[in-house]
Sequence to fold (722 residues):
Amino acid sequence: MIGVLGGGQLARMLALAGYPLGERFAAVDPSPECGVRDLARLIVAAYDDPDALDWIAEHCDVVTYEFERVPAASARRIAERTPVHPHPGVLDVAQDRLIEKELFTRLGLATPAFVAVSTRAELEVAAASVGLPAVVKTRREGYDGKGQFVVRARADLDRCWDELGGKDLIVEALVDFDRELSVLAVRSAAGEAAVYPVVENLHHRGILRVARAPAPALAPELQSAAESYARSIMAELDYVGVLAIELFQLGDRLLGNEMAPRVHNSGHWTIEGAVTSQFANHLRAITGRPLGSTRALGHSALVNLIGTLPDPDEILRVEGAHLHLYDKEPRPGRKLGHVTLVADDPDELQERLGRLRGLVD
Amino acid sequence: MIGVLGGGQLARMLALAGYPLGERFAAVDPSPECGVRDLARLIVAAYDDPDALDWIAEHCDVVTYEFERVPAASARRIAERTPVHPHPGVLDVAQDRLIEKELFTRLGLATPAFVAVSTRAELEVAAASVGLPAVVKTRREGYDGKGQFVVRARADLDRCWDELGGKDLIVEALVDFDRELSVLAVRSAAGEAAVYPVVENLHHRGILRVARAPAPALAPELQSAAESYARSIMAELDYVGVLAIELFQLGDRLLGNEMAPRVHNSGHWTIEGAVTSQFANHLRAITGRPLGSTRALGHSALVNLIGTLPDPDEILRVEGAHLHLYDKEPRPGRKLGHVTLVADDPDELQERLGRLRGLVD
Fold:
């Protein structure tokens, strides 16, 4: 049995990918209504509940997680008794934007200029050093655009401090990038690694809306560079599982933004659009099986369904549309599902994507 | 919630296809160890257990079945309270080889010569009329080669009668076909229909071993003819769901062998090898949603894993191999899983299929 900390849509899609491989699942989640509830033995508990953690450690052959905010201490408690992949040390990196960016730069992946900040005075200095506009983020606990403040003028610093002050912060130059990209990669315990084609991501209000894969018109050198960064980071961390790295493209340069030590929203297109999905490959990696091909099948697009659900029948009428619902109650800003489109050529994809976005927006 | 009579691998794959569409599942099966047990609310009961049937009727929005031997009376009992697709009258046809073949011939799909038989004397006459070799089958209850006897000489008739006598029988000419084919089709309640590419099937000891789709070197006229038969039969039966029709090819002719009113082993390749899988399309049909494209993606092959399981890692090392395990205990002759291969061209497929068969045989 495979244990998953977190029972949301990522755990749900891991389970759906895992049953055909003969796996079974258990999940820990505080909500009895979480998306994996029909597909796993669900332990309803807090992520630091020792009984829940010990149950998972005792009953599972391997444990993984679907979000990087899982308490590292919980992962470590489990790891004393059963393998946890990626190993808990990865959480220390992924949970801290400063350590993460230091890792990137140490391995040759440049990032936007950044400075660590703890006091109001340091914030003032950092803004001057990094330059404005800048984005101030909590070092820990931020996701989907939360815990962030964009400082456009020095006059914004007070409000920024009101909102975020008291926490460890990082001030990053707000980069005028051409587009956002991500690269997903997977590494097995034996050190075998494979990298998916780079994805182009469109965010709105900090939430991923649309992704296209392979990223249109990406220079082969940038694909190679992204692969190289992913392999270096995975090797450095002795990583096992799927890793996502978010990137900014500025002309012919790539800057590292952040990483997620897990299957990732920008990789959902791989279910239909790649030979092996990110979910299947994550499971293959953490269970010690050979990895599958990460090759793309044609051209894919992913559209997130956020806040409200359009009529499923309208979506299913779009040729090649694959609907994935997460079984969650609608709520503003909540990811309720996604749709993947796969087409033989980019023009066909663009036409279908236009129809689909007309239904979703 | 969708109810399924039967909790084996077909129910399992229906459930795996249905969760992304937002469906939930309940299943009735006499075995608590059946393959769907982790993916559905499982009612462990006989297929004619009135409490189980009534529970399903009360709690499910629509009910279907994964095997055609389900008691028609059970389907009718449920249908009094909630929709059953395909409707129970279809079972009367599919459970009787005589009625089935009469339907085929009435709709223009020729079959091997056949005669109904109930007595030893009739068997003698039938053998003379149909000619030898002939295959004698029980009209009802036969599947996967069971309940069949091949009569090559008149001297075999005694042993045949010893084995099958007392039941209603059908004597069919043993046709010297070129190959076995199947056509899978789907029809919605609104009368929308779609047909998958015809599949070539290789059986051994009455069990499907390998299928290739689209059937190699099939004349377009035969694909059209098969589509036409499938559409006629579905329209005649006012059919809702996926229907499989097994065919014999003799030169440029197609003969109807039998039909299965359900998702079918020879359609498992559609999970990765078609735009919309047979499982997703069956669910779309029975829930009143629009059907999805039945177009093939490249060239696919399906290899059944029967009796024993090879090392999964060896299978997963074959490029493009997709493993599907059914979570069943190994037993001689038992279908334990299947592997699908998808390739861009037939030569590539043949090469991979050769490697895979080397692992499986």
Notes: Chain A has three domains: 2-84, 113-173, 179-360. Residues 6 and 29 of chain A are 5 Å apart (CA to CA).
